[in-house]
Design a protein that fits this description.
8 helices; 25% helix; Spo0b-associated Gtp-binding Protein, Chain: A; 5-stranded mixed β-sheet; alpha/beta; Rossmann fold; 369 residues
Length: 369
């Protein structure tokens, strides 16, 4: 059973349009009724739809071919064929759709996520048009045409689907630094917790409720030195913190390598994507219930005077309340910055609705301007 999947390759095809019909009107007392062939129905579209209840691409591992329905052929008595049904492909928020051969990004369902309504839909491939029946070919010279138009063929594409989790704060740290324990304490997520490295093998999301709002936390497998080159599990899952608003670096102060831990983690993120190292962040010294860690916290804080440093123990609950407030402040500041950027863009380029309103006003005043 596939529990977590963040990549998939699929083939999608829109439906062929139905052929037009060759038919003639044959009714009693109506001699030479003329052509009466109806048009074919339109083929179904290929539609991607965001479902917020989805968290992985596992379903696309089991079904890799999606084909919309063909339009129905036209019928006699000028009856139009039925349109083919669309094929709807459900994907989680944060999905990126690329062409398999070129890697071109066709759609990113992560952009503008905060404004995205439930069930955002995107039509990728339109179905083929239905063909004309012989009614369309009637004229004064050819009053009994036997010509029809075939339906337009559908289109096919091979796509690569990738997932980047969307979260407010992403946890970064070495294996066994306490990331899963913190996620377990703050949220209803139940990641695997054990006293050995690489307990977490897949990303986990959890929802923290603070001051009447929800904060999404993301825990990825532990990063080790050389992760950006493929060492450990970090390289594959580093992309899942690309969309986070802020990062929380967890350092196990009971470990002998605590002094260099943050520097190594920051270098790995910078090597993978420089933008990750520029995100707002805070440092968290963990496991303060252990005497050695408690003694090292003061030195840890002194070593990073320009960083926001917190010390916690999930076991004894030391510093947990202060950390919750820090998470809440991070999210509020990130939302304010995003709103400010949106306002600046509207001032520079104009709001999308303003142009429409001006067009409507011009139309109401009459004339072509």
């Amino acid at each position: 059973m596939i529990k977590f999947a963040d990549e998939a390759t699929i083939t999608v095809s829109s439906g062929k349009g139905g052929d037009g019909c060759v038919a003639f009107r044959r009714e009693k007392y109506i001699p030479m009724g003329g052509p009466a062939g109806g048009d074919g129905g339109r083929g179904g579209d290929v539609v991607f739809e965001v479902r917020r209840n989805l968290r992985t691409l596992a379903a696309l591992r089991f079904q890799q071919t999606f084909k919309a329905q063909t339009g129905q052929t036209g019928m006699g008595k000028n009856m139009h064929g039925r349109d083919g049904d669309d094929v709807v492909i459900a994907v989680p928020p944060g999905t990126i759709i690329k062409r398999l051969d070129t890697g071109e990004v066709l759609k990113d369902f992560g952009l503008g996520y905060s404004k995205m309504g439930e069930g955002e839909r995107w039509v990728f491939l339109k179905g083929g048009r239905g063909g004309w029946g012989n009614t369309h070919y009637k004229n004064s010279v050819n009053q009994a045409p036997r010509t029809f138009q075939p339906g337009q063929a559908g289109k096919s594409e091979k796509l690569r689907i990738e997932l980047q989790l969307i979260a407010d704060i992403g946890f970064v740290g070495f294996p066994n630094a306490g990331k899963s324990s913190l996620l377990d304490h703050f949220t209803n997520a139940r990641p695997k917790i054990a006293p050995y490295p690489f307990t977490t093998k897949i990303p986990n999301l959890g929802m923290l409720h603070a001051h009447d709002r929800d904060i999404v936390l993301a825990d990825i497998p532990g990063i080790i030195e050389g992760a950006h080159e493929g060492a450990g599990l970090g390289l594959r899952f580093l992309k899942h913190i690309a969309r986070t608003s802020a990062l929380a670096f967890l350092v196990d102060l009971s470990d002998e390598g605590w002094e260099t831990a943050f520097t190594i983690l920051l270098d790995e993120l910078s090597s993978y994507a420089p933008s990750l190292a520029e995100k707002p962040r805070l440092l968290i010294g963990t496991k303060l219930d252990i005497p050695e860690a408690e003694e090292r916290f003061a030195a840890f804080k002194e070593a990073h005077p320009d960083e926001k440093v917190h010390g916690i123990s999930v076991f004894s609950r030391v510093g947990i309340d202060d950390l919750l407030e820090a998470f809440f402040s991070f999210v509020v500041e990130a939302e304010a910055a995003a709103a400010a950027n949106t306002s600046v863009e509207d001032d520079l380029f104009g709001s999308p609705g303003a142009e429409e309103d001006s067009e409507k006003e011009g139309a109401g005043n009459g004339g072509e301007g």
